[in-house]
Design goal:
By secondary structure, this protein is an all-alpha fold. The protein has one domain. It is 84% helix and 0% strand. The longest helix has 38 residues. It is flat and about 50 Å long. The model has no long low-confidence stretch (mean pLDDT 81).
Length: 127
Amino acid sequence: MKNTIYKLVIISLFTFIVFGFIDSLFFGIYLSEGASTFFEKIGLNQDNSDIMVGALSASTAIVVSSYIEKVNKKLFGEIIQNPLLDIAGILVGTYFYIVVIKKYDILKKLISKDIHHDTSKQRPSIH
């Protein structure tokens, strides 16, 4: 029984961990792709356009997490629905996104240094 409760908690958390990750991911994508600029062009000020970007990313995350929740219910049966689990999942998912982005930035810098370092060591061609 105890293992079943733990499983249900983990499965329930998973949906909102994915939600938090996807919400953060799409917020970053929409900001970097200029969604905020688009909203400013149609007449919203900077603050309101940022709010619209947040709403757009949350909406996208809701669609994806709803699908995942349905799949989880089909696979595992009933899941626990509790606002505290939802909050914890969103925070963990957002934190996970931040960690992934930091690691990605570090990796990108290392690769960039290697590329620049390798090109400086190339032998000059003799013509």
